[in-house]
Amino acid sequence: MPPNVFAPDKRVYPGRPGSPRLVRRPSMSENATRLARLYKGFAQQFPDVKPITARQLDQELQGPKGAELIMIDVRTVEEQQVSRLPGRVLSRDDFESIIYQTAKSTPLVTYCTAGLRSGKYAEELMKEGYTDVRNLEGSILQWTQEGFPLVTGDQESTKDVHVFSRSWALQGEGYTPHYFDRGRGVLAILRSKVSSWLGGSSA
């Protein structure tokens, strides 16, 4: 169904038996606007963290700085299994296993779904003394808004993207959203945090 088409909502509403409600599917531009507003609110929680846009990151990856730049995917294992950004990407656990071997001046870019988790992690890294840390503004959702490629763990191209929850299905045009069932997202985050505390990898 093309965007901006009204589709019937077949849920039952009290007092309106047999009367479906019409719901408009958001356009891609509306998704982009909503994502920008979402990240602006997130960024207030880590004001000292520098952002980098998807376009800026794409340019850096293709330039001389791309060879040394490390991207850190702060999402859960379940989310990363769907897709991730191409290039030198480490999970949070993998990065922390080499953190003492990584120079404090190494360029780092953190990302998650929309930028909240990764922004907070970028702030942690700055407190650890890393001097070139940036958070991907809008994160993987913004990356898809720009139409940039995603890959699977086997480096195969894919249009699938994990958006965490149904309400965050703000992916770019042509990408297929995947999301946790209600409650599973919270459990996945908790498992990831506990695993990080224990120094292991998430299940």
From TrEMBL:
Name of this chain's protein: Rhodanese domain-containing protein
Do you know which Pfam families this protein is assigned to?
Answer: Rhodanese
Q: Which SUPFAM superfamilies match?
A: Rhodanese/Cell cycle control phosphatase
Q: What organism, scientifically named, is this protein from? A: Coccomyxa viridis
Q: Which CDD domains match?
A: RHOD
Q: Which Gene3D superfamilies match?
A: Rhodanese-like domain
Show the segment(s) annotated as Disordered: 1-20
Residue ranges constituting the Rhodanese domain according to the UniProt record: 65-152
